[in-house]
Amino acid sequence: MKGIGVFDVRGRQRKAYTTVAILKDYCGFPLSELSVLNVGGSAGIIDEYLSTHFRYVVGIDIDEQAIEHAINNFKKDNLKFEIGDAMNLQFDEQSFDVVISSHVYEHVPCSGQMMEEIYRVLKPGGVCFFAAGNRLMWNEPHYNLPLLSVIPRFLAHFYVRITGKAEFYYEKHLSFWGLKKLIKDFDCTDYPLKVIQDPVAYGVDYMLNPGSVRARLAEMVAKYFIWLSPGYLWVLRKP
């Protein structure tokens, strides 16, 4: 099973709160009318939270143990869990109003194929909440190693091996420009600046204290150096 973070109830609920707050702001009408597919939903904590706001929620993950945990612990009429591959979604075209992909793209062998599948299962005018990390980050969060995602992959494999973190570096992070190319078929609405400027409304004040030096620095990066931002929060609309 994946790392212990998938069972961090408070942390996962915080992420879910931010997701819902952004989608409420973007959509402008009750989310209770919408169906959701959460790609890479893992152990079900986020999906259970989403099910209190949306009409119907399906959470998928390739991790069989995580899905088993979700099925055994979260039972609701409007909530369903399935083992599923992000690159080969077992749903008909135009099946969902909303797809959520939160820090998933770097874990799949082909992120482009994943985005094609997300596009396929979205209804016309449907949206994807897309949270993504930037390859140009100081510290790689999966292994807690400085510059791991920045250096060439053959060196990254050696780096994780000599530090005893893993045998291979499997994650494939993209830069800002690579991410923009990845989502080229969608209409993109950026949310980082709005979230930074009102961290309380979007539930990120535990990370960004309003008015703090960190918050002001984050706002400057989001305004003028977006390509250096450690992560992105985008709402992607299928035309």
Name the descriptors:
single chain; 239 residues; two-stranded antiparallel ribbon; 21% strand
What can you see in these coordinates?
It contains eight helices and nine strands. The protein is α/β, with parallel strands linked by helices and 239 residues long. Strand 1 (35-39), helix 2 (45-50) and strand 2 (56-61) form a beta-alpha-beta unit. The protein is globular, with a radius of gyration of 18 Å.
Provide a short characterization of the protein structure.
The protein has helices spanning 9-27, 45-50, 64-73, 111-121, 153-162, 176-182, 192-197, 213-224, and strands spanning 35-39, 56-61, 79-83, 96-102, 122-133, 139-140, 145-146, 187-190, 231-237. With 239 residues, it is of the alpha/beta class.
Give me the Rg, rounded.
18 Å
Mean pLDDT: 94
* Spans where pLDDT lies below 50 across 5 or more residues: none
Largest sheet: 7 strands, mixed
The total of helices stands at 8
Order of helices and strands: HEHEHEEHEEEHHEHHE
Judged by helices, strands and strand pairing, the structural class is alpha/beta
Helix fraction? Answer: 25-40%
Please list the strands of the largest sheet in the order they lie side by side: 3-2-1-4-5-9-8
Structural shape: globular
The number of strands is 9
Termini separation comes to 36 Å
Strand content: 15-25%
